[in-house]
């Protein structure tokens, strides 16, 4: 399957993407994770990414599209992928459509994770992620690790993202509303967007997402 996951910061995209990709045996492709990996390796791209990310801004389209395209063309993504955080504006969505067209493939669904704005701030303030780059995500009160500061899955160090400060989150939300939300309409006109309430237990949200994907698959 080829799936796009959309939602505001704190909607649980990373958490759900890891779970869904695991269940569907497809790679989880997160442009945010790819940028963070470059920051850790201190590459030129990483230096550029850090400035935009810390300010809550998007990275330039050309650069982001090239990076996402390169990742989608890796052998493990041949029979499907789950895109998390890409596309993030209409130009990126159009570029993705072009790429899919060239490869004669199509998207199966676009899952729009919906969460009230007040909840977003609470979720992000307590969010801690694993430094190993493996996309394991915890929350100090909603899903605390067994040992404080240590990833349950791989033992990596947990840290708070620099762009998870309240000021940056407000900017990221504004960017989401102005630039990313329009892609939901874009995909609705293609009959691909499905809205999933991302509230309640994590398992429950995964179940809703899997059911929605099954419905989309049956409808084809
Ligand atoms: P995320 O981990 O998806 O929340 O992304 C973190 C940050 O990485 C964003 O706030 C942007 O600065 C940058 N980023 C991630 N994906 C994209 C994208 N598709 N286009 C532009 N910037 C992105």
Automatic annotation (TrEMBL):
Sites where the protein binds ATP: 10-15, 127, 137-138, 200
One term of GO molecular function: ATP binding
GO biological process: AMP salvage
Annotated positions binding AMP: 31, 36, 57-59, 85-88, 92, 161, 172
Main localisation: cytoplasm
Region (NMP): 30-59
Keywords: ATP-binding, Cytoplasm, Kinase, Nucleotide biosynthesis, Nucleotide-binding, Transferase
Pathway: Purine metabolism; AMP biosynthesis via salvage pathway; AMP from ADP: step 1/1
Enzyme class per UniProt: transferase
Localisation per UniProt entry: Cytoplasm
Residues covered by the Guanylate kinase-like domain: 1-214
Cellular component GO terms, alphabetical: cytoplasm
EC number: 2.7.4.3
UniProt catalytic activity: AMP + ATP = 2 ADP
Top-level taxon of the source organism: Bacteria
Assembly behavior: Monomer.
HAMAP family: Adenylate_kinase_Adk (MF_00235)
Classification via PANTHER family: NUCLEOTIDE KINASE
Similarity annotation: Belongs to the adenylate kinase family.
Domain notes: Consists of three domains, a large central CORE domain and two small peripheral domains, NMPbind and LID, which undergo movements during catalysis. The LID domain closes over the site of phosphoryl transfer upon ATP binding. Assembling and dissambling the active center during each catalytic cycle provides an effective means to prevent ATP hydrolysis.
Role noted for this protein: Catalyzes the reversible transfer of the terminal phosphate group between ATP and AMP. Plays an important role in cellular energy homeostasis and in adenine nucleotide metabolism.
Record-given protein name: Adenylate kinase
Source organism per UniProt: Streptomyces antimycoticus
